[in-house]
Amino acid sequence: MSSHSYCSRLYDTYLGSVIDVTDAGIDKRIVIMLASQDWPVTTDAVAQVLKISWNTAQLHLYKLQAEGFVRGKRVGRQNEWVLAKSHPS
Fold first, then answer.
1. What pLDDT is recorded for position 85?
2. Element (H, E) at 57
3. Could you read off the pLDDT tens digit of each residue along the chain, which spans 89 residues?
4. Using CA atoms, how far apart are residues 53 and 21, in angstroms rounded to an integer?
5. What is the number of domains present in the chain?
6. Does residue 2 sit within a domain?
7. Which pairs from 35-44 meet CB under 8 Å and 24+ separation?
8. CATH number of 30's domain
9. Given this model, what pLDDT does residue 74 score?
10. CA-to-CA distance for 63 and 39, rounded, in angstroms?
11. Can you give the pTM of this predicted structure?
């Protein structure tokens, strides 16, 4: 096995295919990001870290909230998000 394919496989394994821009890929990246945080994060922070637009981040966060994967609340003029303690099976 070449070192390139080995590194590529490790990259995909540990970073969750960071360059996946499909809807499912964005959802997965958001969940991974929220799981790594010890405190609530804003929609803007999600957008900046994942290098997606604020609107795209907000849309996917609302979708994940409706599916029970994340919880969100309004704090001042911002939404703050955390990973749900339990998610639907």
1. 81
2. helix 54-66
3. 444 444 444 444 445 444 455 677 899 999 999 999 999 999 999 999 999 999 999 999 999 999 999 999 999 999 999 999 876 55
4. 12
5. 1
6. no
7. 35/83, 37/82, 37/83, 39/82, 40/73, 40/75, 40/80, 40/81, 40/82, 41/80, 41/81, 41/82, 42/78, 42/79, 42/80, 42/81, 43/78, 43/79, 43/81, 44/78
8. 1.10.10.10
9. 94
10. 20
11. 0.72
Separation of alpha carbons 71 and 62, rounded Å: 9
What local confidence, expressed as pLDDT, does residue 88 receive?
Answer: 58
Give the range of the structural domain holding residue 32, as residue numbers without chain letter.
21-83
Q: How many Å apart are CA 85 and CA 15, to the nearest integer?
A: 22
CA 61 to chain centre: 8
Separation of alpha carbons 53 and 66, rounded Å: 20
Please report the beta strands in 1-89, taking only residues with DSSP state E, as ranges in sequence order. 41-42, 70-75, 78-83
Q: Does residue 3 lie within any of the structural domains?
A: no
Query: Residue 27 has which token pair?
Result: 């959802």
